[in-house]
Amino acid sequence: MFYLTPTLSTEHLVLKRGTLEDFQKVYEYDFRKLRDICGEFAYVKLDPQLIKGFETAADEEDTLNWILYTKEDLLPIGDLVADRVNPELRAIELAFNLHPAYWGKGYMVEAVVEAMAHLFSLGFENILCGYDEGNVKSKRVIEKMGFEPYKTTENAWMKNGVPITNYLCILSKENFERIYANLV
């Protein structure tokens, strides 16, 4: 199915499709170096060539792709992608990145809640969200939001010769409505 990425609004954010320039601002740093996987954490500038095409990802089937903008001044600060539909679970997977200058301010939770409300309104019964071993920031956001462990894949990929475990978590529509009853 093809989904259009709508503009969504929260108390502090506007979520909408972005331009390549917006993605370049969000991905100023190489997120692969910021995830603290295998103890690697460094502010390394990202080669802009690596994100060419990100702005058109929302044109793909089963993909919604938002840039997070501050409502106050419309600065692009992060992105959310919903893709990889799982028909058996009636689920879609959500992935996110936030520019490090905006970490710890609650923006990502605010954006993810709004995006999930929209995804559930499209008929999904579950949202999947994952993180890799060592990525404690993503793990913290996912757990804070009420996601529960669903699937663990040991040796999912290798980093510098070290096998990395991937953790996939799930949040049902029923649990979302229970947790966020005052927001939906």
Helix content: 10-25%
State the end-to-end CA separation: 25 Å
The SSE order reads EEHHEEEHEHEEH
Query: What's the CATH architecture?
Result: 3-Layer(aba) Sandwich
Name the structural class: alpha+beta
Overall shape: globular
Textual characterization of the structure:
- This protein has 5 helices and 8 strands.
- The chain is of the alpha+beta class and 184 residues long.
- It has a single domain (8-179), classed as 3-Layer(aba) Sandwich (Aminopeptidase).
- The chain has an 8-stranded mixed beta sheet with strand order 1-2-3-4-5-6-8-7, with helices on both faces.
- The longest helix is centred in the middle third of the chain and has 15 residues, at 107-121.
Q: Brief overview, please?
A:
This protein is of the alpha+beta class and 184 residues long.
Structural key phrases:
single chain, 184 residues, alpha+beta, eight-stranded mixed β-sheet, 8 strands, 34% strand, globular
Write the layout of secondary structure elements.
Elements: E1 8-9, E2 13-16, H1 20-26, H2 31-34, E3 64-70, E4 76-86, E5 91-98, H3 107-121, E6 126-132, H4 136-144, E7 148-159, E8 162-172, H5 173-179
Parallel strand pairs: 5-6
Antiparallel strand pairs: 1-2, 2-3, 3-4, 4-5, 6-8, 7-8
